[in-house]
Amino acid sequence: MAVRGSVDLYWIPLGAGGHVVRLSGKVFEASSAWMRRRRRCDLFHSALIVELPEGRTVIEQAPVPDLHGRRDRGVVVEGPVVSKLAGRFRLFRYEIRRWNGGEIPDLGFAVGDPIRVTDDASIAARILELVPSVPALVWGRDERRTGDMWNSNSIVAWLLVNAGIDVGGFSPPPGGRAPGWRAGIAVANGTPLARD
After folding, report:
1. pLDDT digits (tens, 9 = 90+) for 133-180
2. 8 Å CB contact between 151 and 157
3. Fewer C-beta within 10 Å: the chain N or C terminus?
4. Does residue 33 sit in helix, strand or coil?
C-alpha cells in the first residue's frame, strides 16, 4: 500500500493580518506599477502545507517575533531583511518555519482554494527535507541578479523547483502578482532571468 501524502499551496494577500505590511506593500506596488507603466495588482504571499502520515507541517516565511520559542515555531533558517548589516537586529530578520502541527496565522485570508501541488508522499517528504537548505538571502533584495527580489514567494518557488515540481502552472489569483516567485525559480535553477 502506497504511503499517503500531499502538498498544498496557498495564496494569501500581502499584509492580510497587519496594517504596516499591507501599507508598505501598496506603496511598493504603486511605485513598481508607475515605473513599469502597468496597472496596479494585488500582491500575494505564498505558503505550503504538507500532509504526511506523521502529521501536518506548515512552511512559511515570517518576521522574527521574538528570540524565544524558535524550536516551538519550527524555525530552521533565519535571514536578514533589507541588508545584512540591518539583519543584526531582530526587527530586520525573517525566519523560515517548518512547523509540524503549526499554523499559518493569516491562512483564513487565503484567496481561493488551495492548489494541490502533489499527492506523492516522497515529494512531500523531499520538500520537508529541503527547507533547512533554503538560501538565507537578504529579503527584499536581488543579490543573485535574477531581476526579482527575494522573499516568501522565492522560498516557496525554490522548494518546489528543487523537489522536482514544474511550477509553470502556478500563479496567484486573477489580478494578483507574486513578487519574488521568479527569483526562487532562478536561484533554484542557478540561472538568472531576464528583467522585465
Report:
1. 999 999 989 999 999 999 999 999 999 999 999 998 899 988 888 999
2. no
3. N
4. helix
User: What is the distance of C-alpha 149 from the center of its chain?
Assistant: 12
Q: Which residue has the cell 511605485?
A: 31
C-alpha–C-alpha distance, residues 105 and 91, integer Å: 19
For 57, the enclosing helix (H) or strand (E) is strand 55-63
pLDDT in tens, 62-106: 888 876 667 788 999 999 998 888 888 888 899 999 999 999 988
Three-state SS string over 68-90 comes to CCCCCCCEEEEEEECCCCHHHCH
8 Å CB contact between 57 and 13: no
Tell me if 159 sits within 8 A of 167, measured CB to CB.
no
Closest of 106, 110, 126 to residue 118, by C-alpha: 126
Amino acid type, 83: S
CA distance 77 to 107: 21
Q: Are 73 and 102 in contact (CB under 8 A)?
A: yes
Q: Per-residue DSSP letters for 92-112? A: GEEEEEEEET---TTGGG--S
Is pTM, for the whole model, over 0.85? Answer: yes
